[in-house]
Amino acid sequence: MLRSLRQLFKERPAERRIARVPDGERYYVVGDIHGRLDLFDALVEEIEADDARSPAAQTTVVLLGDLIDRGPESAGVIDRARDWGRQRKVRYIAGNHEEMFLESFEDKEMLRHFVKHGGRETILSYGIKRKRYNELTIKALQAELHDLIPEEDRLFLNGFEDMVVAGDYVFVHAGLNPRNSLEDQKQADLRWIRERFLKHTEPFSHVVVHGHTIFEGIESTDHRIGIDTGAFRTGRLSALVLEGADRRIIQAVETDGAIAVELSDLT
C-alpha cells in the first residue's frame, strides 16, 4: 500500500508555476523594432491609450533591443525611444545590432559586418545621400560616421542595459545560456545566443521574454516567450503586456500601407 502511494506521488506531474510580475506593476515589453518608426509610433500610441484606460499601476516599458538596422528610419526610432523615456519610465535593453553599430566607429571589420546586416539602412537614415554613401570606402565611411551620427545618439545607445528582472520574468534581447545562472550570464550570450537557448526545454529560474529570433507569431512556451515578429519584414511589431499573472498582446500591423492595432490575450 505504502509503495503504491509513493508511486502515485512520483508519477504525478509537477504543478505548473504561474509566473507573475509584482502586484501593482504593469509592464509593456516591446520586441525588435528594426527601424520601423511607423509601426513604433502606432504601438506607442496604443500603449499610452491602454495604460490610460487600465487600472492605476506602476507602469514600466521595456524595449528589448535592435531598435535599429534593416528598416528605413533607425535615426527616427532612436529619437522616438529617447523622447518616450523622458515622458514615462522606459528601460532599454541592448541588442546585437546596437553592439555592432557602436563598435563600428572604431573597428573597420565590424563596420563591414554591420553594413551587410542592416547597418547600411541605419547610416542612410541619418541623411547621407545614397550616391555619396556608395562612393565611400570603408575607411572613409568610418570617418564620416563620427560627423554624421550625433554623439547624443551614441551615448544613448551605449547606456542600454543587458537584462531587466520583474518578479518571475527576466527580459533580455536574445536569451540565456542554459548552463549559467542568471547572475553569471555573459553579455555575448544575452545579445547573440540562439540555438542553445531555443532548444533548451528545462525551466530557467525565470520565464524569459526575448526578441532576436523572428517567429511568425508570438512564441510562447512554459519557460520563454519570444516576441520578435519581424517588424522590418512582416510589418508586424509586437508588445507583451504583463500584469499580475495576466498576459496580453498589442500589435501594430501594416497591411497594404495602412497600420492597424490588434489586441489579444496570451494564454
Describe the structure.
The chain has 267 residues and is an alpha/beta fold. It has one domain: Metallo-dependent phosphatases (Purple Acid Phosphatase, chain A, domain 2). 39% of the residues lie in helices and 23% in strands. A hairpin with a 2-residue loop joins strand 4 and strand 5. Helix 2 packs parallel to helix 3, helix 4 packs across helix 5 and helix 5 crosses helix 7. The N terminus is likely disordered.
CATH superfamily: Metallo-dependent phosphatases
Continuous helix count: 11
Number of strands: 11
Strand content range: 15-25%
Nearest-angstrom radius of gyration? 20 Å
| Overall shape | globular
Named at the architecture level, the CATH assignment is: 4-Layer Sandwich
Helix content: 25-40%
Distance between the termini: 39 Å
Give the overall pLDDT as a whole number.
Answer: 94
Low-pLDDT segments: 1-15
Order of helices and strands: HEHEHEHHHHHEEHHEEEHEEE
Overall structural domain count: 1
Concise description?
This protein is 39% helix and 23% strand.
Q: How would the blueprint of this fold be written?
A:
Layout: H1 2-11, E1 25-30, H2 37-53, E2 58-63, H3 74-87, E3 90-92, H4 96-103, H5 108-124, H6 130-135, H7 138-148, H8 151-158, E4 164-166, E5 169-171, H9 187-192, H10 195-198, E6 207-214, E7 219-220, E8 224-228, H11 231-234, E9 236-243, E10 246-255, E11 258-265
Parallel strand pairs: 1-2, 2-3, 5-6, 6-8
Antiparallel strand pairs: 1-9, 4-5, 7-8, 9-10, 10-11
Helix pairs in contact: 2-3, 4-5, 5-7
